[in-house]
């Protein structure tokens, strides 16, 4: 059944302001609950309380690590570099996202209500809470997406929760979201004063120009409606599409990339298009994650596959084609899944994955070598991120509260 995306209006007149407080790691509880009047949040089932990992979807990247044979030892080749160092944190929860609004000031979010602030460029972090959160409540919030621009920031969490600040995080307000949204909110990007762009698990893209009071749809229909309408398109697996997408990634100019929940095809969308365009993966292996080369769709796409494979497309990909031209990178993972890839500059590329493995390329992604920075720590790395606007600072985020800072 075709689902038409229309304007979704939400109002914040009843939003309560949240003032972050400092608190010790020992005083921090595993359960937090918003107490905004008139907005109830149901308790999660025990199965839903597991750490939720996202690059744009947490469950997707967790599956990369768990399905790729993490019981095997690290790659046997000798480590040739150690360009990252561990940063101590006041908690040990899985980390999901990190962002800065200046070279020195930023925030870090994660599972079980993990929320920390830095004022020295990330060298030290202090745990934060909100004054009107009840620490005795059993509900656990998983803050999974964080985005700042010019002092204005957004935090997206689960159960569905959207927080907004206009003063670099000194105070926060909760933004109510309509229950009529198709799918669950999965990502949000700060675009400027009172402006943000939000996506959902059904492929809806919304923009607000008034700090979340109203949201305007940018896509005419959900992804499952599009695929049902063009079921004869020849896209492998489209007939089995369940309606959800994972690993939504946005490039610097607003183009999007998403992977089907089964990993059997991917989709692209650019501003001005009415619908998402599906594409075949061009390989029998399951897609684990995808992203943009240097954050720009015009510079190409990268794709990781089950079994620790990494492929990179040519520049200026033709988004109307069914299959893209991907070239396999020379990376020896020993079967470890690759969860994320990021370009520090046109030549230096980093890939992270299961068992905290790290790999670096100095030729633009053609050949990778092993980096031993995460060797001494248990768990998995899920996210690697660089900030060219702030001196190219780099961060790798993982389970067990692991935060690595680029020092190379």
UniProtKB/TrEMBL annotation:
<dbReference type="InterPro" id="IPR015943">
    <property type="entry name" value="WD40/YVTN_repeat-like_dom_sf"/>
</dbReference>
<dbReference type="GO" id="GO:0015979">
    <property type="term" value="P:photosynthesis"/>
</dbReference>
<keyword id="KW-0602">Photosynthesis</keyword>
<dbReference type="InterPro" id="IPR016705">
    <property type="entry name" value="Ycf48/Hcf136"/>
</dbReference>
<keyword id="KW-0604">Photosystem II</keyword>
<feature type="signal peptide">
    <location>
        <begin position="1"/>
        <end position="17"/>
    </location>
</feature>
<dbReference type="Pfam" id="PF14870">
    <property type="entry name" value="PSII_BNR"/>
</dbReference>
<protein>
    <recommendedName>
        <fullName>Photosynthesis system II assembly factor Ycf48/Hcf136-like domain-containing protein</fullName>
    </recommendedName>
</protein>
<feature type="domain" description="Photosynthesis system II assembly factor Ycf48/Hcf136-like">
    <location>
        <begin position="77"/>
        <end position="406"/>
    </location>
</feature>
<dbReference type="GO" id="GO:0009523">
    <property type="term" value="C:photosystem II"/>
</dbReference>
<dbReference type="InterPro" id="IPR028203">
    <property type="entry name" value="PSII_CF48-like_dom"/>
</dbReference>
<keyword id="KW-0732">Signal</keyword>
């Amino acid at each position: 059944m075709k689902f038409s995306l229309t304007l979704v209006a939400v109002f914040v007149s009843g939003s309560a302001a949240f003032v972050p407080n400092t608190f010790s790691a020992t005083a921090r509880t595993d359960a937090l609950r918003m107490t905004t009047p008139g907005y109830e949040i149901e308790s999660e089932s025990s199965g839903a309380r597991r750490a939720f990992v996202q690059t744009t979807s947490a469950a997707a990247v967790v599956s990369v690590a768990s399905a790729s044979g993490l019981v095997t030892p690290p790659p046997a080749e000798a480590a040739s570099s150690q360009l990252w160092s561990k940063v101590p944190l006041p908690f040990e929860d899985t980390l999901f996202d990190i962002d800065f609004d200046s070279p020195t000031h930023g925030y870090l979010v994660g599972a079980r209500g993990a929320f920390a602030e830095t004022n020295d460029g990330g060298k030290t972090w202090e745990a934060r809470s909100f004054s009107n959160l009840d620490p005795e409540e059993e509900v656990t919030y998983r803050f999974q997406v964080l985005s700042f621009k010019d002092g204005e920031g957004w935090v997206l969490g689960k159960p569905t929760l959207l927080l907004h600040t206009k003063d670099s995080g000194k105070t926060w307000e909760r933004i109510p979201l309509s229950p009529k949204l198709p799918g669950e909110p999965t990502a949000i990007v700060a675009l400027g004063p009172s402006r943000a762009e939000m996506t959902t698990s059904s492929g809806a893209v919304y923009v607000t120009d008034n700090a979340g009071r109203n949201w305007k749809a940018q896509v005419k229909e959900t992804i499952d409606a599009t695929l049902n309408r063009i079921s004869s398109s020849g896209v492998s697996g489209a007939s089995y599409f369940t309606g959800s997408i994972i690993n939504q990634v946005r490039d610097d100019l607003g183009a999007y990339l998403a992977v089907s929940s089964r990993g059997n095809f991917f989709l692209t969308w650019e501003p001005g298009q009415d619908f998402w365009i599906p594409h075949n993966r061009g390989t029998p292996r399951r897609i684990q994650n995808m992203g943009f080369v240097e954050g720009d769709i015009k510079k190409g796409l990268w794709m990781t596959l089950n079994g620790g494979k990494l492929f990179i497309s040519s520049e200026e990909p033709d988004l109307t084609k069914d299959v893209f031209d991907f070239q396999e990178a020379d990376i020896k993972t020993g079967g470890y899944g690759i969860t994320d890839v990021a370009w520090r500059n046109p030549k230096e590329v980093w890939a992270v994955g299961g068992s905290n493995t790290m790999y670096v390329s100095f030729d633009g992604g053609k050949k990778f070598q092993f980096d031993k920075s995460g060797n001494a720590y248990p768990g998995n790395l899920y996210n690697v991120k660089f900030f060219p606007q702030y001196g190219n600072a780099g961060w790798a985020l993982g389970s067990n509260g692991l935060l690595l800072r680029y020092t190379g």
